[in-house]
Prior knowledge:
The protein is of the alpha/beta class.
Amino acid sequence: xxxxxxxxxxxxxxxxxxxxxxxxxxxxxxxxxxxxxxxxxxxxxxxxxxxxxxxxxxxxxxxxxxxxxxxxxxxxxxxxxxxxxxxxxxxxxxxxxxxxxxxxxxxxxxxxxxxxxxxxxxxxxxxxxxxxxxxxxxxxxxxxxxxxxxxxxxxxxxxxxxxxxxxxxxxxxxxxxxxxxxxxxxxxxxxxxxxxxxxxxxx
Length: 203
């Protein structure tokens, strides 16, 4: 069973449908007691950084999420904004992120190249930077679907597991121990997303 955290900002139905395709049971919840009993968590997200942090705190989820991440050490996967929440903070907002991975979130800015559109939207290649069970079986032509205006950079390169180029190189998947994050949307990435979510379900 994978528990998907509902804090009001995320494409939750698509994630559940993709998990069903691979035969993985999932539940969507915002209840702290269900998050507390989870054995594996997905933290999705679409929207603004501060709004997401605020909703997590408002729902009383921050403390229980910290416990699941730092004490229980269950596998947790952040998707898109959910990955950015794993960092210390974002240029998009003022509030502190969860800080589970030593990384920061920055805004795409290409003032000298009008051809580089923001948000970064569509299919793009990912390249392995560090081996991880999340990306087991990935090969060089793996592609995923992106929609984002902000990107993540880790402080320590060992925490980067996939990189992507869009005007600059950024960390498109990160990991620190039991905590994983992907900037792209595996639930929209067809066979490539199926492979990643299958790997996560087996952790």
